[in-house]
Amino acid sequence: MAQGTTPVVQQRRLRAELRRAREDAGHTQKRVADELGWSLSKVIRLETGATAVSTSDAMALIHFYKITDQDRIEDLLAVTRARARSWWDEYTGVYEQRFLNFLAYEDSASRVRQFAGLGVPGLLQTKDYARAVFEAYLHEESRIERAIKVRMRRQQILERANDTPDDTKFDFMLDEAVIHRLVGSAGVMIEQLVRLKGLNDTGNPSISIRIVPFAAGVNPGMKGSFTIFEFPFEDEDFVVNAEEPNSDVLIRDNPETASNYVEAFYELDEIALLKEESSKLLDSVIRDLRSHLPS
Known about the structure:
- By secondary structure, the chain is of the alpha/beta class.
- The chain contains 13 helices and six strands.
- The chain has helices spanning 7-25, 29-36, 40-48, 55-64, 70-81, 97-108, 127-137, 141-154, 156-163, 176-180, 186-200, 255-271, 275-291, and strands spanning 111-116, 169-175, 207-212, 226-230, 239-242, 249-251.
- The longest helix is centred in the N-terminal third of the chain and has 19 residues, at 7-25.
- The N and C termini lie far apart (47 Å).
């Protein structure tokens, strides 16, 4: 699926366009609600994405905001009519909508920046590493197998980056603890670290894996893991997925908060090892793990 074309991302752009049109027309959310006979809650929910914008709602807002450019009108209405299915649609009702939205943003991003402080990012995990992770907190084999299937399916966007270097860019930053933490077994970890090094050594400029060393000391990454999604449209705000103990949080339509994460990533970029240095460190850890395997 092309960047920026998933329904969730299209709806997000539609909301931004309609919000901008309201502001350009000088209307408050309350005035819109009063004039259209809607509740204030409905207007707020439409603009924040809590409710999808229907064709009839879009037409009412377009008329009220006096948008007359026919090409612009057709573009806005086309989004409300879009019914293209995505691969994650089969999991509707299985996973929370927040996670499905996360998958949509991930698939549509032109750039993904991720800092991981505890474990290898899902996009980089081997199947056995993923299994070891899911077995730790999912206790039904069917749920474990489903979670692994979804994780492996997500990784196809990395193949897309390999096939088309000008497509999505991936910048992964890992705390050094991630490559030392034993997940599964020594054999599982060796396979996982070899995969990380292999991805880093391909020479593909679209994928970068760098380590934030222990020697860097206190750093912004210590606050928690996070992912930043950037989109191919210049006027599109970042979306951030912040990992928290009980549930991840998607930060959308909040440029100020999102910019804090972007700044944190840039700070980590300053102290992280270069790709080549990171590969050398991975090599060292791999050798150490192999030296402890039974002969």
